[in-house]
Amino acid sequence: MKKLVRFGIAGGLGFVIDAGVLALLLHLTPLGPFIARLIAIALAMAATWAFNRTFTFDRSGRSLAAEGVRYGSVGITAALVNYGLYSALLLSIPALQPLAAMVFATAASMFFSFYGYSRFVFRGE
pTM here? Predict the structure, then answer.
């Protein structure tokens, strides 16, 4: 249960970074919602990796490089699911605000992320 709570905190941190960067980029740059979201996801993923590695799951016992590759594999797959849902929502519901689409897509991909990180990345050898 402790891991799930910490994962939720990491996810909350990632969500704040994702939403904040997306909002800033949409407001301050000419980037559209699709490019801005790619940048936001990348920054959020880096922050959640550091938090999850330090506080949620502990180190796996693998080298930093091996753990990074595994984390990246799960993270990129989860990000593709997240971005795919985000894009599908924006394209199918043109009136939907990008931040609202982000909330739905992030919630849907959260379960995949927890399972992948806890079973594939941070599980001891």
Answer: 0.76
The pair of three-digit structure tokens given for residue 11, joined into one six-digit string: 């996810």
Q: How many CB atoms lie within 10 A of CB 38?
A: 13
Other residues' Cβ atoms within 10 Å of the Cβ of residue 26 = 18
Mean pLDDT on 57-77: 79
Residues 6+ apart with CB under 8 A from 121: 57, 60, 67, 70, 71, 74
Return d(Cα 89, Cα 93) in angstroms, integer.
6
87 near 41, Cβ under 8 Å? no
In 3D, which of 61, 44, 73 has the Cα closest to residue 122? 61
Place of tokens 């979201």: 37
Return the domain boundaries, the chain: 2-121
Q: Half-sphere exposure of 91 toward its Cβ, with a 13 Å CA cutoff?
A: 7
